[in-house]
Amino acid sequence: MPMLDFHTDHGPLRINIQSLTIAGWTGRDAAAVQHHIDELAALGVPPPATVPVYYRADAELLTQAEDITVLGSDTSGEAEPLLVADDSGTLWLGLASDHTDRALEAVSIAKSKQICAKPVARELWLYEEIAPHLDALRLQARIVEDTGAVDYQSGTLQRIRPLPEILTGLPEGRLAPGSVLFCGTLPVIGAIRPARRFIMQLHDPVLERTISGEYGICCLPLVH
User: With b meaning 16 or more CB within 10 Å and e meaning fewer, what string describes 23-47?
Assistant: First the structure.
């Protein structure tokens, strides 16, 4: 199982990750959820039967590398708040990208969650410190295309279901020690599309701090 290293205001933290769950369709606004469903439907992805949905994925997909390698050009990132329980069960908030193969997603969302690495930023905030103002946190993403960097996602966590609700919706009702939960994403600006680089940020305007992360995407040809 992967060992991830983080910076925190309380010192360095190393966590032995045992499991990964990815929550999908977590928008708080039904119209926004439908917008994301429509985005993916345009790519051939069937709609979910109920929302939210919890997908299990291999914890080995989690990475803090500067670059990831994907197969083909039909992948893209999604900035998401991340919840992680450390080895003692203490809850932390971080930032990650649910990088997804869109071609495979049209066949099976569950399978698409297993095919791409999941980049994780290197900083965590103690959950209890930000719990009173979670909705004020701002999630943003930019992508680097051939024409340069452009805005790709932007909004506050008020647009995502309350994180305590997403937590209690887990089959176990909580995060066990060594567990990671991706909490969902925001609609993109424009169309879902690939990029050469993905840049993400989670900003706390109350405590005036920011978690940042970015990674490059190296595409392997489907055949050679």
Answer: bbbbbeeeeebeebbeebeeeebee
pLDDT at 130 over 80: yes
H-run or E-run covering 13: strand 13-16
SS3 state of residue 125: strand
How many helices, marked H, and strands, marked E, lie in the chain? Answer: 5, 17
| Cα–Cα distance for residue pair 194/145, rounded to 1 Å | 8
Place of tokens 């887990």: 170
What domains sit in the chain, N to C, each tagged with a CATH number? 3-220 (3.90.850.10)
Higher pLDDT, 49 or 57: 57
Q: Which distant-in-sequence residues (6+ apart) come within 8 Å of 193 by Cβ?
A: 76, 143, 145
